């Protein structure tokens, strides 16, 4: 008799009858004594999972740190851009009531004071104006330094445009 309990002998490959069956009994393949995983049973015990938490932490924590840094950099960039846009818009509004010779100093004064009041992180501020075609166009650029949190050093530029108030700009007092 064979190992499966039948009295017939197994057929060889290539014979005309049915192909041989792969025998699996009690975790053994084709009668081998070794299991596929090399374990006595297929359940995980405490020896198998020892150290897995530290491997998971080593993989996941840098990814979480990178995502948090990107969120912080994006938020700081958005906040600095909004502060610069508000300051330039306020400068253009304030200069719209001035005569042409007073526009540039007034815009610079308002932009600098607005950025200082809001606690902006803008460095190397540059302000320029143009008062043509009945409009005051104020522009400003500054650098945002995010290298202390792993980010780049960026230059932001904002422009605002306001119509010159013809009733208020008749007197020229700088």
Can you walk me through this structure?
Helices cover 37% and strands 20% of the residues. It is of the alpha+beta class and 174 residues long. Strands 3-4-5 form a three-stranded antiparallel beta sheet, covered by helices on one side. The chain has a two-stranded antiparallel sheet with strand order 1-2. The longest helix is centred in the middle third of the chain and has 44 residues, at 52-95. The mean pLDDT is 76.
Features:
174 residues; alpha+beta; three-stranded antiparallel sheet; two-stranded antiparallel sheet; 3 helices; rod-shaped
Task: Give the topology, please.
Elements: E1 24-25, E2 28-29, H1 46-49, H2 52-95, H3 103-118, E3 122-130, E4 135-145, E5 153-163
Antiparallel strand pairs: 1-2, 3-4, 4-5
Helix pairs in contact: 2-3
Sum up the overall morphology in one term: rod-shaped
Oligomer: single chain
Structural class: alpha+beta
Beginning-to-end CA distance, first to last residue: 115 Å
Strand percentage: 15-25%
Radius of gyration: 38 Å
Tally of DSSP β-strands? 5
């Amino acid at each position: 008799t064979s190992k499966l309990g039948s009295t017939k002998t197994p057929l060889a490959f290539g014979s005309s009858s049915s192909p041989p069956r792969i025998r699996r009994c009690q975790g053994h393949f084709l009668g081998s004594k070794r299991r596929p995983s090399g374990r006595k049973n297929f359940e995980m015990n405490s020896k198998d999972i020892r150290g897995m938490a530290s491997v998971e932490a080593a993989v996941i924590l840098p990814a979480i740190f990178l995502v948090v840094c990107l969120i912080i950099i994006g938020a700081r960039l958005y906040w600095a851009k909004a502060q610069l846009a508000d300051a330039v818009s306020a400068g253009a509004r304030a200069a719209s009531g001035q005569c042409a010779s007073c526009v540039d100093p007034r815009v610079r004064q308002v932009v600098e004071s607005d950025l200082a009041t809001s606690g902006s992180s803008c460095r190397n501020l540059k302000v320029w104006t143009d008062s043509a075609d009945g409009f005051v166009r104020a522009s400003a650029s500054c650098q945002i330094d995010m290298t202390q949190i792993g980010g780049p050093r960026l230059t932001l530029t904002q422009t605002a445009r306001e119509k010159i108030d013809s009733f208020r700009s008749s007197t020229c007092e700088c």
